[in-house]
Here is the input.
Amino acid sequence: ANYGPNPICKGCLSCSKDNGCIRCQHKLFFFLRREGMRQFGECLHSCPSGYYGLRTPDMNRCSRCRIENCDSCFSRDFCTKCKSGFYSHRGRCFRGCPAGFAPLEELMECVEGCEVGQWSEWGTCSRNNKTCGFKWGLETRTRQIVKKPAKDTIPCPTIAESRRCKMAMRHCPGGKWRRPAKTKDKKKKKKNLMERAQKQHSIFLATDKTSQ
Here is the structure.
C-alpha cells in the first residue's frame, strides 16, 4: 500500500502508516496481509482464496480455512471449492472420491455412485450352451445393481465376469465317442511298427530256412 503524505486507507475507519487498516467500515472484512516479515491490514468486500468471511458484532474478519487442500470455504470446517486436482465432498477435499461415490469431472465433486451387490456363485462350466463334449469351457458369475448413480454419465462397475474352466464331463452320455486325433496317430504308428516287425521276422525265418 502507498500511503504517501495523505494515507490511502480505503474502507478503513482507522488506519496506520505502518500497519495499514486497523478497523474497517461496516460490511467490509478486515484482512491481515503478510509480506515477508511485514504485515498490514486491508478492508475488503470479500476475502481472498483460502479465507472465509467471519461476521462478528465487533468487526468482520477474514479467517483462514482450516481444511486441507481447500481453496475457498463457507466456514472454518466446510470447504466450498477445493484446490486444483482435488474433489469436493461434504465440505472436504479428496484426491480420489470415497467408496460409494464417483468423481464428477466437470464440477470436481464426488457424487453418489453406482452401488452393486455381492457376486453370485460361479455358474456351470459350459461351451456353446453344452456342458459336455469339450475339455474346456467358461463359467460365469453375476451381481445386481442395488442403486443407480445420480448421474447417467457415471458408469457402473461390471456386473458379469467369466473365467476358463475344465468341464466335468468331456464326453456326452449316449453320444458317439471319437478318439482324439493325437491318439489315432499314436495307434497308427504303433500298427506300422508292428507290421514292419512282423515283415522283418518273416524275412528272417525265410532266410534261416534257406540256409539250412
Notes: The domain at 70-112 is CATH 2.10.220.10 (Hormone Receptor, Insulin-like Growth Factor Receptor 1; Chain A domain 2). The chain has three domains: 12-64, 70-112, 114-172+187-211. Residues 1-6, 208-212 have pLDDT under 50 and may be disordered.
